[in-house]
Amino acid sequence: MECFDRAEFWSREEIERAQLVRLRNVVGQAMRSPFYAKRLKEAGIAPETLKSLDDVRRIPCTTKDDLRSQYPDGLNTLPQCEMVRMHASSGTTGSPTVIHYTQNDLNLWADLMARCMHMVGVRREDVFQNITGYGLFTGGLGLHYGAERLGCLTIPAGPGNTTRQLKIMRDFRTTVAHIIPSYALYFGAALRDSGEDAKNLALRIALIGAEPHTEETRKRIEELLDVKAYNSYGLSEMNGPGVAFECVQQAGMHVWEDAFIAEIVDPDTLEPVAEGEVGELVMTTLCRQGMPILRYRTKDLTRFIPGECACGRHHRRIDRILGRADDMLIIKGVNIYPMQVEQILMSFPEVGENYQIVLERENYLDQIRVKVEIKEEHFVEDMRVLRDLQKRITNKLRDEVLITPRVDLVQNNGLPKAEGKAQRVVDSRES
Amino acid sequence: MECFDRAEFWSREEIERAQLVRLRNVVGQAMRSPFYAKRLKEAGIAPETLKSLDDVRRIPCTTKDDLRSQYPDGLNTLPQCEMVRMHASSGTTGSPTVIHYTQNDLNLWADLMARCMHMVGVRREDVFQNITGYGLFTGGLGLHYGAERLGCLTIPAGPGNTTRQLKIMRDFRTTVAHIIPSYALYFGAALRDSGEDAKNLALRIALIGAEPHTEETRKRIEELLDVKAYNSYGLSEMNGPGVAFECVQQAGMHVWEDAFIAEIVDPDTLEPVAEGEVGELVMTTLCRQGMPILRYRTKDLTRFIPGECACGRHHRRIDRILGRADDMLIIKGVNIYPMQVEQILMSFPEVGENYQIVLERENYLDQIRVKVEIKEEHFVEDMRVLRDLQKRITNKLRDEVLITPRVDLVQNNGLPKAEGKAQRVVDSRES
Ligand SMILES: [Zn+2]
Ligand SMILES: [Zn+2]
Question: Which residue, among A328, A232, A313, has the nearest Cα to A273 in the 3D structure?
Answer without folding.
Answer: A328
